[in-house]
């Protein structure tokens, strides 16, 4: 609806439709199927222009033609001009004397509505016609009347930051917390960053915690709009709720990349780890907001909290390819079993596999990615870090494949992670009891002595691995176990 707040809550740059009524009156189209004679059109123009003498003259002419003013007004309700009557036009144009004449002399109803339920008062508020608004309210206009979409004059004033209009409405008994599309006037003011309007509404005891759909509160809206003053107004004297189960103001400030908002909320006591299934830290990691990440970590944000898929912040940053964020988060993140090489490079490799498309992988017969085959290919290309990541990924779907542990042990030897090499070799031995105990004991001893090449030979001497390619650094051939 042109003359109500938009669904996004943002005020129009100028009152929408400001010129439309006049343009429509100048060009009444016969194609619109409107049965209005020239005198009726002239009557509306006179109201629009505030020409009381002309209006009186035309009204008398219509009376002589046998038409009452009531009949004329009914005939004006047509699609071309949206059913605006004389009082609507006079109100939106701010023609006080015309409004007085229509109300006092012709007894027009101050709450008359057009096709979409708009009253003259709503138009006066929207078009910032304070004198007309005062006149209408003084003659009993209802400040709480809603138009067809459920919005009230106060909603319009709040979204357009019309403080004078809001003061008028509140002084005449306007309810401060009406809901329109699950939004209160305070929420709209916060959403638009209208600080003066927020202050006015809070002074009239608007509810700072009136939650709308999905627990969006005025504080969340203010932080999203980068309105620090508004956030302070809501927090300090009004005890706005700082946390919610899912949609927290801190997350809103982070998402909006408002570092000052994040700092303000933390100082006020916001829980930095609230917001399941994703925390503010996860949002910052996803967006690459390093300043917010540092601020949140300094305030005690836990980098080890997983989302509903089990992913932690450093993985989120790595999947997004945000290396600087990975470097900040890695030192404060506990090692993840699913990441074969727990290092910055290792988690980067892990992320590449995670975000890759199925067509980037060799496929099994069932059409699913064959990560083991991919690992073999990477091993044959001496890309041991990638091979290790792929073998680890393969374990997620095939945890009983003992050969994967043997291959992972070999990769770890090549990448220099001797401890992991020994652990994986031990796991493999436990799953393969027929493996020569002497080979395992010899390999373990050689690892401790840092004789890694010989350890590799010893551990794998009884194992025949097929990497799907020509022999690599150490020749292995035979059947795939």
From TrEMBL:
InterPro entries: Ankyrin_rpt, Ankyrin_rpt-contain_sf, Cul2-RING_E3_ligase_SR, TPR-like_helical_dom_sf, TPR_rpt. ANK repeats lie at residues 82-104, 116-148, 149-177, 181-213, 245-277, 276-308. This is Uncharacterized protein. PANTHER family: ANKYRIN REPEAT FAMILY PROTEIN, PTHR46224:SF56. Pfam families: Ank, Ank_2. It comes from the Eukaryota. Gene3D superfamilies: Ankyrin repeat-containing domain (1.25.40.20), Tetratricopeptide repeat domain (1.25.40.10). Residues 1-21 are annotated as: Disordered. Keywords: ANK repeat, TPR repeat. TPR repeats lie at residues 368-401. Residues 1-11 have a biased composition (Low complexity). It comes from Urochloa decumbens.
């Amino acid at each position: 609806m042109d003359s109500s707040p938009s669904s996004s809550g943002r005020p129009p740059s100028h009152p929408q439709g400001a010129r439309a009524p006049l343009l429509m009156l100048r060009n009444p189209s016969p194609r619109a199927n409107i049965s209005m004679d020239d005198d009726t059109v002239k009557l509306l123009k006179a109201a629009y222009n505030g020409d009381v003498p002309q209006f009186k003259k035309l009204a008398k002419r219509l009376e002589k033609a046998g038409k009452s003013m009531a009949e004329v007004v009914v005939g004006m309700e047509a699609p071309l001009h949206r059913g605006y009557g004389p009082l609507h036009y006079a109100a939106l144009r701010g023609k006080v004397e015309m409004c007085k004449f229509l109300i006092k002399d012709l007894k027009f109803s101050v709450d008359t509505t057009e096709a979409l339920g708009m009253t003259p008062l709503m138009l006066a508020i929207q078009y910032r016609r304070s004198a007309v608004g005062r006149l209408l309210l003084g003659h009993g206009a209802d400040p709480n009347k809603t138009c067809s979409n459920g919005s009230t004059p106060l909603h319009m004033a709040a979204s357009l930051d019309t403080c004078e209009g809001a003061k008028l409405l509140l002084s005449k008994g306007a309810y401060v917390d009406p809901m329109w599309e699950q939004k209160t006037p305070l929420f709209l003011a916060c959403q638009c960053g209208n600080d003066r309007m927020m202050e006015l509404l809070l002074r009239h005891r608007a509810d700072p915690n009136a939650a709308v759909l999905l627990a969006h509160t005025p504080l969340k809206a203010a932080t999203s709009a980068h309105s620090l003053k508004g956030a302070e107004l809501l927090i300090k004297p009004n005890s706005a709720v700082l946390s919610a189960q899912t949609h927290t103001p801190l997350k809103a400030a982070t998402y909006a990349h408002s570092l000052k908002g994040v700092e303000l909320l933390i100082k006020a006591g916001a829980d930095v780890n609230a917001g399941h299934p994703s925390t503010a830290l996860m949002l910052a990691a996803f967006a690459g907001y390093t300043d917010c990440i540092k601020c949140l970590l300094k305030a005690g944000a836990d980098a080890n909290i997983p989302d509903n898929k089990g992913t932690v912040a450093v993985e989120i940053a790595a999947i997004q390819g945000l290396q600087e964020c990975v470097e900040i988060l890695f030192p404060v993140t506990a090692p993840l079993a699913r990441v074969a090489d727990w290092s910055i490079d290792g988690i980067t490799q892990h992320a590449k596999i995670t975000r890759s498309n199925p067509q980037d992988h060799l496929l099994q017969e069932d059409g699913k990615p064959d990560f083991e085959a991919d690992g073999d290919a990477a091993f044959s290309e001496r890309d041991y870090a990638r091979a290790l990541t792929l073998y680890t990924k393969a374990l997620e779907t095939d945890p009983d494949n003992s050969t994967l542990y043997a291959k992972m042990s070999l990769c770890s030897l090549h990448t220099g992670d001797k401890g992991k090499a020994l652990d994986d070799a031990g796991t493999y031995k436990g799953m393969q009891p027929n493996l020569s105990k002497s080979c395992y004991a010899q390999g373990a001893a050689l690892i401790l002595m840092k004789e890694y090449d010989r350890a590799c030979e010893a551990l794998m001497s009884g194992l025949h691995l097929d990497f799907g390619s020509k022999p690599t650094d150490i020749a292995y051939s035979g059947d795939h176990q």
